[in-house]
Amino acid sequence: TAFLVLSLVAVTVQIDKIACNSVIDTANDIDELQIFANALKTSKLDSLLEEAGPYTVFAPTNLAFQKAYQMLNTTSMDFWSNEAFVTEVLEHHVVIGKLLLSDLSDGFVMRTLQGQNLSVMVTGESTTLQDAKIVTSDVSASNGVIHTIDRVLLPPPSTQFQDSTAQEDVSSMNIVDTARELQGFSTLISALEVTDLVQKLTLPGPYTVFAPTDAAFAMFLDLLDISVSELLSLPNIADVLKYHVVEGEVYSQTLKDGAQVETLLGPSVTFSAREGRLRAGDAVVTMADIRTSNGLIHVVDKVLRPPRWVSAFRS
């Protein structure tokens, strides 16, 4: 009995330890995910997956990568030598928002960081994405969840080696519908729906939207000590949203350190590009250049705050 109690305590401590780590550190602690974890740590996703998130990561096992090398008739060295291809492959395994296995119902569609969709198929007790089966689910991390899979998810070949600015739109959906499909933007959608911007952002445009996540809005609400319903009822909520919208397509590559972009509200947002991170004001751009039928979406981890609006609200 004493041995069983000690064993349960040890397991509980290990689970708590994992849950305190980020998704990238949690993956690194799992032996069968070492290839994937090492690839993440040497990619541009390293810093992103240490952020608050939350994120859902579909992590191929070491054996899954061995299968991928064979299927592509390549060596591990050649596979990892193409940086652009590797980045797209890794991004195709990450989804914004926390999705547990119970959320992945048959036919469920989600958008990956790479910009493509993943469809879920449930057959009996088996859950698959493309041709990859989830073998271990709901591995908890401090900023999301990991599901291990038995195959590498490869993006469609037509997008694997193209320059992002030269690609045709990968989505037939407009900005609003794309934001609806992405996980973790319910507050932004609700705010758009109480203003005339929800109609404007369905027009041909093009427009560029800096889209705060639900977590970003939660921090903003805490800062102002208001609820979501109080935010949506403010007469000048449209001003906050307009500060996140720019006319025209503004790709992340054009946003150099010190660049300023005029918003629909009028005042410009100033950008900084330091230490490998692009910032809009004090908000980090966590995902850039999501193409839609009428423009671009850049995901940001904070609400962009028009100074005059904040001071007026606080007064």
TrEMBL record:
It comes from Tetraselmis sp. GSL018. The keyword Transmembrane does not apply. SMART domains: FAS1. InterPro entries: Adhesion/Biosynth-related, FAS1_dom_sf, FAS1_domain. Pfam families: Fasciclin. PANTHER family: FI19380P1, PERIOSTIN-RELATED. The keyword Membrane does not apply. Keywords: Signal. SUPFAM superfamilies: FAS1 domain. Residues 1-20 form the signal peptide. Residues 20-153, 172-304 form the FAS1 domain. This is Beta-ig-h3 fasciclin.
